[in-house]
Amino acid sequence: MQLLVGYAMNTPDHAQAILAVISQIPFGCATSYGEVAKKAGLPGYARYVGYILRNLPEQTRIPWHRVMNAQGAISFPSNSEKYQQQRARLEAEGVSFSPSGKVKLSTYQW
Fold it and tell me: Of the four listed, 68, 73, 76, 109, which is most buried by Cβ atoms within 10 Å?
């Protein structure tokens, strides 16, 4: 995996720690990039979590769809295929969205 230039802690071990945390997010739950970073021991590295997720292989089994931004919104543009895919996966797990397209993280937070 290519590592993100500019991050002081961008080692394969850190990427593995992030993926290990994401792999533990239970069915029907969601969390933020920042919470993943914090649980991986990398507080302040929310953008690095996004970078790791953007570079996952297409057929990954990592439940990437359970990670959203701190406002409970999907980070992909709402008219994109990835947005629709992430939302559909979350809804299939029972996660509901507000009319504005946000998830109430206090309800679904892991």
Answer: 68
How many domains, in total, are found in the chain? Answer: 1
CATH number of the structural domain spanning residue 89: 1.10.10.10
Tell me whether residue 73 is in a domain: yes
Span 92-106, pLDDT tens digits = 999 999 999 999 999
Predicted TM-score (pTM) of the model is 0.87
Which neighbouring-strand residues pair with 102? Answer: 73
Residue where the block lists tokens 């931004």: 69
Residue bearing tokens 């008219």? 79
